[in-house]
Amino acid sequence: SAVDDVTLQLDSCRMIKFLLMVNQQGQTRLSRYFEPVELNRRAAQEAAVVRCCLSRNKEQCSFVEYQDFKLVYRQYAALYVVVGVSHTENELSIFELIQNFVEVLDRYFSRETNVGFSLTRRLNQIMFHLDSVHIILDEMIQNGHIVETNKNRILAPLTAINKMADG
């Protein structure tokens, strides 16, 4: 029906374009794109996006209109998580997605490292295990859409991999 076609078009317009993890010096530690961006454009786009987010103060809103998309970001210790989304995407849902993503990382890596580590040290440790971070992202986001938020289901593949490696 016509209503279903319009709903499908809206859903296809509403999407996550990319996710970046960036340190306070502006260095990209992880980038994941959910729509094609030419490699030579990525570096320039990332640099501009990072400058935009890092130049803002803590009192300013974490949602920014930027070129042909919106930025939603959160700072955790010395690390920023920045998500580029289409203009029709719900900023609060992305803000919550970022929080959930960091909580999943924290849960997984607190098992792998000393539980007494601070979040800052754990986030630094995470940067040495990007393969696991990509698996977590794959469980949460597919084709630019949020597909899973349950922490146990997100971590299930990594738990299975670890059991096979230990077994």
From TrEMBL:
Its Gene Ontology cellular component terms are:
cytoplasm; endomembrane system
The segment(s) forming the AP complex mu/sigma subunit domain are 15-164
Question: Which superkingdom?
Answer: Eukaryota
Query: Any idea where this protein resides?
Result: Endomembrane system
**Which InterPro entries is this protein grouped with?**
AP_complex_ssu (IPR016635), AP_mu_sigma_su (IPR022775), Longin-like_dom_sf (IPR011012)
Query: Among its keywords, does the record have Transferase?
Result: no
Main location, first listed in the record: membrane
Gene3D superfamilies with a match to the protein in the record? 3.30.450.60
Summary of subunit composition and partner proteins: Adaptor protein complex 4 (AP-4) is a heterotetramer composed of two large adaptins (epsilon-type subunit AP4E1 and beta-type subunit AP4B1), a medium adaptin (mu-type subunit AP4M1) and a small adaptin (sigma-type AP4S1).
Q: Which family does it belong to?
A: Belongs to the adaptor complexes small subunit family.
Q: What does this protein do?
A: Component of the adaptor protein complex 4 (AP-4). Adaptor protein complexes are vesicle coat components involved both in vesicle formation and cargo selection. They control the vesicular transport of proteins in different trafficking pathways. AP-4 forms a non clathrin-associated coat on vesicles departing the trans-Golgi network (TGN) and may be involved in the targeting of proteins from the trans-Golgi network (TGN) to the endosomal-lysosomal system.
This chain's protein is named AP complex subunit sigma
Q: Which lineage do the record's taxonomy fields give for this organism?
A: Eukaryota, Metazoa, Chordata, Craniata, Vertebrata
Gene from which this protein is expressed: AP4S1
